[in-house]
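3.2 Worked example (two chains)
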Amino acid sequence: MTETLDFQGTKVWKTLLDRQAQEGLVLELRELVKAAPFQQYETPGGSKMSVRMTGAGAHVWMSDRSGYDYADAQPNGTAWPDIPSSLLSIWDAVAGVAQPPDSCLVNFYQEGARMGLHRDQDEANTDWPVVSISLGDDAQFRVGGLNRREPTKSIWLASGDVVVLTGASRLAYHGIDRIRYKSSTLLERGGRINVTLRVSQ
C-alpha cells in the first residue's frame, strides 16, 4: 500500500514502486547506461564527486571546473538518449503538472558515496517540481529550508520510494548523508540508483 508523507514540506511516496516495477526500471536504466555511460564529474573546486552520473532527455545536468549547468550532449558529443516512458509515467503520477520533464539525471551511489546539501536551482524556471526515484540500497535523505543554515531533518528512503520537491520545498536544501550498503537485493553488487526528473528549460 502506498503511503504519502509530507516531510518538511517535501512529498515522500513510500513504496510507490513495487519490486516488479523496480526490476523493470533497472533493466531500462542498464540500456540507458549503454548509450550514455556513467561519468565521475568534477566540482568547480576540482574535487571528484563521489557519485557517478549519466542522464537522458534533451538536457542533462553536469558539473566540471567551469561550473554547474545543463548540457544538450554527452561529454563525447553524442546526444543523450530519450527518457524512458516508464519514468515519464511516474512523473505523470506524482508531479501534479501537465508539463513533461525534459531532463533525467541518473546518480549511482557505491559504498561510501554521498551527496552534500544543495538545492536544485540551475533550471530556467524553478516553479516546476523535481521528482526523485530511489532504487537499491537505503539512503539517509536530509532536507532543510531555503537557507543552508536552517535546521534539517532526515528520513530513510528505501527502494521504490519517490520524493517530490514542489511548492515551498522546491528550492529547499537537501542531500544524501549515507547509504546502507547492500541493504537491498535489487542491485546484485549493491549500491543505490537515484533518478531525478526535472524541467530544465
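3.2.1 Second chain
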Amino acid sequence: MQVRVHVTKSSSATEAAIERSRDVLVGNYKRQPIVLVRGRGTSVWDLEGRHYLDFICGIASCPLGHCHPAVLEATQKQLGELWHTSNAFHTLPSIALAERLTSASGLDAAKVLFVNSGAEANETMVKAARRFQQEVRGQPQRGDIITFEGGFHGRTLAMTAATAQPKYQGGYAPLPGGFVYAR
C-alpha cells in the first residue's frame, strides 16, 4: 500500500530538518516531506503541529500504536530494571513471553527465537527450511524457496534475492540462489 501525503507548505524548520537528514541518512526509502515529532495511539503530529492518522505503525514492527498508557507503563518499568540484552543472556521477561507464545501456538514442541527484524526472521526461516531438507529429508544441499513477485522480504542480501523485484536487486549481483518466484 502506498500512502500519499499532501503537504501544502513546509516551514523553514521542516525544510532544515529534511536537509540535515540528507547529509546523514541513506536514502533507502522515499521519505515523505514531513518531520514527525509526536504520537499518541493512531495519531501522529509533525513539526508544524499538523495531525495525521498513522496507518503504517512503523511498517509492521510496532502495531500497538503510539504511547498507549499500558505499553508506556510496562516499558518504563522495564527500563528502570534492565534495558536490552542480547540473546546470549536469559531474562525473565523473555522467558515469560516465550512461554505465552508457545502455549498459544497449540504445538507440542514449539520454541521461540527472538530476532531484531523481519529480514532476520525471514533469513532464519530460509536457514531452517534448508537444514530440514538436508538433515531430516536427506535431500540435496539446497532446496528452492518459493516467494511471490511483488513481495518484500527485507534488505539483507539473501532477502533481496528472495524479493522478486528488480528495483531492490539492482546493483547487488551476484545474489544468492535458491529462490523461485511465483505470481
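3.3 Remarks
The chain has a mean pLDDT of 88.
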